[in-house]
Fold each of these.
Amino acid sequence: MSELQYYLTPKRAIEPIYPKGNAFWRGNDRFLIKGINYFDRKSKDGISKPTVHDPRIDILTEEYLPNLRRDIEVFQELGLNTVAVSSLDPSRSHDAAVRLLAEAGFYVLVKISEDIRGPELPRNNGSFDSDFDTQEYYTLDPITASLKLVDELADHPNVLGIMVSGDSLRYTSTTKIAEVIHAHIRDIKAFLRQRCGRQIPIGVTNSELLMLRAPALKYFTAGSPSDRIDFFAPDSWSWAHKSSFQISGWKNVVKVMSEVPVPMFLRQYGSYVGKERIWEEVECLYSRDMTGVFSGGCLYTFCDPGHSDYGIVEVGEDDVVRRKPEFETLKQRFRTVNSRLEEEVFEEAVGDYEGWRGEFPETKENRWMATGNMPQFPGDWGEVVSKIQTAQDQGVPYIHQCDRP
């Protein structure tokens, strides 16, 4: 059997993950995300591509399938179940890679809309209107690109969810851009309802600016259930090297975020402070201390992004994966987690998100400026959907027809 045939041979059926209450489920069983952020820092010609400011390559296109086949073995060795990716090109096909991951038993989280940006802050303490008009920042190209990707990915049963980027919420004075992000989420969910295929979960990422976390959580879970997020995916860098549930601040985070019963997981975790990481946070994340609020997370990251030492492996010019010393420690942490009994991991109670109704947070000057008055779709809805339909008819996946509003 060839290497490709081996990876395409079904190992287990992939059952779609769905959110219910404040948790994720596979059938009747709770599901915890044991994931890794995955991207490659090299192009196929061996040239180092991304830096802090450069976009990353699209790791799920066909030319990178050899890399993916190679790296799947590493994911399996660690005992993971999910891969988180970003920077996907809506003009390219990702079907082969997503299916390859499915056959190996892996779910996929996809971050989109990285190019949502608010106005630039002035330099030298210049004046700035924090109550800017968000309609001009909701432009057609980003939402069209998002809808194309969602259309391609939604019917893959192992695509766990789509993460709309909330990373532009980094400055208190530009928080009004949250209206654009929320509108983006609203229109993706409307597209899925009209499309009538799988209603894939749509969530939002959130960088670790703690003073904005609580209002962001309240904001994106407010409004109509058909428009609000299905999950919340914040970053967490507060557990640094040797720490604990209390010392890291995770205890306080759980207390604060438990006020909103939405499914959550850590989009990125694994702080590097110049020492070999010991990954104590893994055993805490998958314990009863955390699982009443968080459903696991995605460690950062597979290989170094070209500007840090966060990778758990190094990939040389010879395409050989070399495991860093901390890799074995991480593997042992997941081995411990994966051997736990269910009662060691979960509380019995699950929150009620379906019946919960949140309110938009109050606006506060230079603290939180986003309101429930979100911008309208920036174009002709029927024309955009028709163009996506036409593109799919020419060979890329398809769009379902139905009478659902």
Amino acid sequence: MPSQIFHPDFKARPFWWEAYAPEAIAPIELPKETRVAIIGAGYAGLSAALALNEAGLDCLILDANEPGFGASTRNGGMVSGGVNVAKRYFAKPLSAEESVPYLNDAADAFAHVEDLIARENIACHWTKAGYFLGAWCNAHYRTMEKKVQVLNADAQSGAYVVPAARQREEIGSDYYRGGMVVERAAHIHPALYFKGLFDVIRRRNIPVAAKTPVTNLVQSGSGWTVETPRGAIKAGDVIIATNGYTGNITPQFKRRLVPIGSYIIATEELPPEIAASLSPKNRSFADTRRVLTYYRMSPDRKRLIFGGRAKFGQTDPVETAPILYRFMLDRYPQLKGTRITHAWTGNVAFTLDEMPHMGKLDNLHYALGCNGSGIAMLSYLGFQTGRKIAGQVNRICAFDQDEFPTHPLYHGNTWFVPWIGRYFRTRDWIDRRLD
């Protein structure tokens, strides 16, 4: 099968890059000093820069690659309003009361992205068509029946459960044991959303230094010296916005983040009647399996974009494409024979408490740990970090916590991640068997 699933024009690169690929930009002369240096030119870094600029503070964005080369132009393009907050596999689950402030701010994160796209007229195929979460087993469905009340009360989700007998109204599949619809959810073209943010940055003449890795950070007095191969910059504050690409320059963050590759495939254009049947209401989809999958139609509704944890670790997306293809056929047997035109990967950053974080550690500001909700959460936490530095916040964001958990035995080596994958697959098998 593997050799037969690839289209003759197959590309091992993101489908999104057909519309916009991270581009080489002209090198700039580095300033001798800046009020704020932002490390990372993804959603979080650009959003922080916009907040600082609106407050009248100068800043400089630095990136080791082209702006947007990481997950900001590689993700699945699904935007939720709090569905994934407090979803925990290892950390202690939050009580309904404890989850309230996080759900409130997750709802604000969704509104922030929606308002930003409208205000800046970003053409990124924003489609507020809702989200269907498939129940992997009956026990998961029963949990959903309780969860909808919390989501509706604290995240304005417009959520409701759909029994298995009616799930064909939402998805052209009988794979799940029913599911949950969240009306306050959307999907976008993630690379065009990034392009829109980056265009705003350029219109405001905010300097961006691409291909400029930070080689050292030295605290000097009340500020920082940011060292690069092209020279050093004095900065009053530094924001770390590197998420799944956090490296050795900031070991205190590397040991708090677990980068995991997420893998995605795109099908060739489908026959219209089949394409229309997969997602009757143009919803986006995910499921409650621990070995997660997520998927949605392309903006023109002609292809299926299908992603998930095909492998726990870092590997070639061509190697994982047959695994995702099998997952896709499990849900949509009618796609047998369909070929893949694109396969790619990007890093998601998980945290040890499975929650996004912003704050200040060792005098470095940060917005990190999207846990798979990067579009909304990193856009929001980056913006909140910029406003915080500018002194424009009148309350503390729920994700701005003093504690950013780590573990004495973890220093950034993800050797254990494949073992977590084996555990997840076993638990998924048990859950389904118990039905």
Amino acid sequence: MVKPEKLQQRFNLYVKNKNWFTPKQTVVIGVSAGVDSMSLLNLMMNLPAENKTQIVVAHVNHQLREVSDEEEQYVKTFCDNHGLTLKVAHWDIENHPQNGVEESARKFRYDFFLEVLKKYHGDILITAHHENDQSETVLMRLIRGTFINHLSGIKSVRDFHGYQLVRPLLHFKKQELKQYALDNAIIWYEDETNQDLAITRNRMRHQLIPLIEKENPQGVAHIADFADQVELMQKQNEYLIKQIIKQIDDEKRYDLNQFLSYPEYIQQGIIDLILNETVPNQFNLSLIKQIMQLLNNRTKPQGQVQLAHNFVIKKQYNYFFVEKIVKKQISGLKNECFVVTLNQWYSGNHFKWMLTDKSDYHDELNKREATIYLSDEQFPITVQPTKNDDKVTLKDGGHQMAKRVFINGKVPIKDRKQSQTLVDSSGKILAILGYRESVFSADVQKQKYVLIIK
């Protein structure tokens, strides 16, 4: 096991080689009272003079657990005893959402960190993400499916609203930090939710990672090294792809014919870089695939794919481009025709709906769920206004027209006029959204998708 002084020495050398910190800088450290952040705080406090900074501790009391107040008091006492500036925020219980608590908590936390940086004229935000966090992140992205550029995982340094966000522990193991805390008599609190196997990251941590370490004790370190190699490859590819984009770029309108002259693996790199410069970190393989299918479909001279934050990528004859539009233009209401983006919620007539390739969106509150099997050739999937003679496929192989679906369901005339039909690239009807879905037989040659009506 790594001795405490050796870990401090390694940390000091690592920071010095990276040239991250100077005495003139003020750093904000996110401290939760857990072993990772308490170890980070102590390591930062014991840096040599040439790298020692002014420290501001930022603590969030999420009020999610019984010991939250006790943890807050411990951090206050620690900072008082060591003469550290502390700023605390409380995430009021009435602001806790019913769903997506983890992501909402993260947003609250980082919004608060930004406030602290501004208030204390800080230069750098520091968080305690370590080597195990890196490995878990890479594995989750790999399993869920993501474009390879994003397999670089957690970046050690990145921009954060004009400040720097630094994670100096990404090459230090969780167990090393824990032993450092034990050997230095550092008190910390365990978050019992870290044992909840209903959370994906916890399953990675407690089930998958131990198997990897059993196979190879250096497995976690190798995954972290892999993330570094991917990041280096990303920088190399980005440099080369930017040279190609310059050749097809006409004031952010991209020449489609020139684009299509490149092989698909270059096209993918072009699309990923264009999108990432507009709405960073919002894309996955499924989205890239849909955009590629739209741009390469010679029979559809126009079309669009919805992105995040009210952006769309549009194809118009000989050009394509990214555009920000008002939300009502892409809501999916009334007589709109548009290309469907996987894993994106749309507003329908008295309901929300989504076509997903993920299996963990099941919710007992869903009004309807239908399994759909699709091949790559059936994309892009589009939505169009429902016509009375639209036909869904029944279990026995027969068909039922939309008009009969509406009559049987006693659907009001005004709702029929706003109804929409989901179709594949050949015009095959997949569903009359919210009212009836075609029945699909299981097909191992195709990928399984789920249509959810909420």
